[in-house]
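TL;DR need structure tokens for one chain.
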Amino acid sequence: MDEIKQTVSFFQGVYTLIIGLSVTEAIRSLVLKEGQSDLKSSVLKLDHLPSLVGFFCIVLPFYQGMGRHFFSVYINNIEHEANNYSVTLMIDALFFLIEASVMFFMSTLLAKDRWRLFFGAIILLMILDSLWAFNVWLFTEDGYFKYWTFLKMNALLGCLITIPLLVLCKQGKKIDNYAIYYGMTVNILVAVVNYSVNWNWYFPPAIRMQ
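>> reply
TL;DR here they are.
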């Protein structure tokens, strides 16, 4: 079992590194101009803040969910000692690696004039996560409720982002401010709904010893 934990930890470390870089880039872009590296002349760019808040509302549940999935499927499930877990682990790791890379791309798109690309990256992330969740839903016995719920959460976020994107993308820069605040509001709302519906999965209740 320790060898399986080490293998799982390796793949967790890969996507954790990329997500860590994306968070670093997002915070850096908030205080540094493009191409600037000197913090002494840094300026807080408030127009990046709404997208940054929305970005964290996506990254935090994604990262926590990745860790919970790896733990519940590959570490806490002792049946994998006898079963061939390598294929499903590689598929999960590949999806998480691609999703983490999309998050890094999102971290470079926080400026208000890049909201179209930012929304597009969110849609891409939701598609990838839906494909992953559907795959898990099909091939794991315990995944029906929580992964079906993830599919519905992704569909909700995708609709709330896609419809305004199609309507507003031709309006020019005059709606940039409205778009970034709308995106922030939607991401906060979906994060709250996601945690509310899946609270016991994200935060398993403590088991009291008698």
